[in-house]
DNA sequence: GTCTATATCGCGATAGAC
DNA sequence: GTCTATCGCGATATAGAC
């Protein structure tokens, strides 16, 4: 029997999400989150670097997934093929099936400038992971950066369209359309 | 004889830049900035929303410039033409001739996560300005977003290359190369 | 776990500008 | 007189140090 109830991190996360939903992000203090989880403020900051991070804690997994995919792709694979396959895996693993939760988070992020900045940082981190993957595959710096940034653009524009739409279109189908649109634009 | 020395905003900005250079961003407190400018902390926050904003205060002008350019372009102009012309104007107006200062700012931004986030937000604001410009020209939402994000990618990847290079290449020439590279990639 | 620095913002008063 | 910039004081929350 342990001194602490388990899953402190999860409880903090849940408490935070609940309070954000109830009273908004800015109006929710860290002590309030910690109290609801039955923990101290100090413990909160041991699990999350700051209040914003609660909302993006598991976004880092996307970068890890991307790194694995890119390292595992055949040596001869074309960059564009890698991107298409990678976006498919990303859509399937990290987005599909979470539409409602992602919509909800999007609203929260829209309500606070600080959250928007953190969101952008996660996006930038994903771009870096992709860029590093291409660098590791021997591409030049500029080309790797260009491909990485464009990949992330595809993800974000597609996800936005997907979250806006009420039909049952698959995210990955939208990604395909966006890629086609991009090629039409710059072909 | 006035009660206040004029240019409070400029003095605050200069004091901040000096102190950031001397002791770093995180180590510089707002009271210290205000004191060096001969003002109070409260006055600092009336001019700048937060400590980070001092470094990016005039980035908003880029969005204004973009909005003007896009509104002024001929109705029949192709999106890609508008982008090419816009990036040329942007390079000329906001980057060319400021290489040393921009390099210095980049170092500062690299040193602090909060500054990185703010930098990304300014980048996002530029993308929004471009997207809005295309929307106003009647393009669909997805197409406008795709073109805007790609434009900003071109700017940032080009600027990074430009700041890294020690030769005298013009930023706009690098932009041209990047656009060509992008077309080669997705053509 | 406790303590504390410092960012940030609200409020009322004041001093010149127009 | 009204308007705006500034000051001075204070309150609170974040975040990090000890």
UniProtKB/TrEMBL annotation, chains A, B:
Stated name of the protein: TetR family transcriptional regulator
HTH tetR-type domain sequence ranges: 6-66
Record keyword Transferase present: no
GO molecular function, one term: DNA-binding transcription factor activity
DNA-binding region: 29-48
UniProt keyword list: DNA-binding, Transcription, Transcription regulation
């Amino acid at each position: 029997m342990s001194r602490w109830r388990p899953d402190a991190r999860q409880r903090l996360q849940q408490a935070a999400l609940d309070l954000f939903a109830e009273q908004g992000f800015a109006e929710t203090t860290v002590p309030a989150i910690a109290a609801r989880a039955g923990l101290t403020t100090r413990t909160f900051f041991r699990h999350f670097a700051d209040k914003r991070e609660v909302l993006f804690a598991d976004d880092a997994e996307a970068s890890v997934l991307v790194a694995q995919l890119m390292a595992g792709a055949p040596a001869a694979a074309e960059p564009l093929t890698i991107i298409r396959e990678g976006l498919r895996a990303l859509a399937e693993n990290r987005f599909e099936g979470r539409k409602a939760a992602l919509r909800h988070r999007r609203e929260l992020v829209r309500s606070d400038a600080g959250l928007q900045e953190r969101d952008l940082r996660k996006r930038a981190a994903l771009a870096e992971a992709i860029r590093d993957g291409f660098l590791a595959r021997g591409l030049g710096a500029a080309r790797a950066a260009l491909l990485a940034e464009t990949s992330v653009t595809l993800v974000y524009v597609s996800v936005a369209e997907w979250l806006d739409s009420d039909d049952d279109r698959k995210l990955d189908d939208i990604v395909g359309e966006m890629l086609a649109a991009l090629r039409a634009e710059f072909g």
